Fold this sequence. Notes:
Blueprint lengths: L21 E5 L3 E7 L7 E2 L2 E2 L1 H21 L8 E11 L8 E12 L2 E10 L2 E12 L7
Amino acid sequence: MSNFANILELIPQRPPLVLVDALIYSDADKSTSQFTVPAQHLLVSNGALREPGILENVAQTAAARAGHELSKSNEPPKTGFIGDISNIEIMRLPAVGTTIKTTVTQLQQVFNITMVRGVVEDENGIIAQCEMKIVLLEPSTLQ
Length: 143
C-alpha cells in the first residue's frame, strides 16, 4: 500500500458520510481507493452498502485523487459535487465486512469539470461501474 496522507486531509467529506478508508494508488490520470463496508453507516442497510453509497464511493475516490494532486502544492481539498452520472451498472451490493477497491480514471477535464470512469471491485471481481462528471468549486464560490 502506498503512503498517502490521512484520507480526511484529501477529501472535503466528514464522518458520518466518509466512504473511503485510504487512497492506495494515485497518478495524474488514475487513482484507487480502499473501503471496508462497516455495519454501522448511513448508506448500509440489510447487511450491504446500498447503491447511493457505491456511487458516493466513486465520487469520494475522485475527490481523493483531486485532493492528492492539490496537496502537492499545499492546497486544501476543494468542495465538489456530482454533475452527472451515466452508464451505471451495479451488478451486486458489497456486504458488510467486504473490502472494495475503487479505481477512477480521468477521461476528460474542462476547466473545473472532470469526467471520470469509476470501477468498483471486490475479491470476486467488478461489482459496479459508471461514468461521472464532477464539478469542483473554487473557494470564492462558496461564500
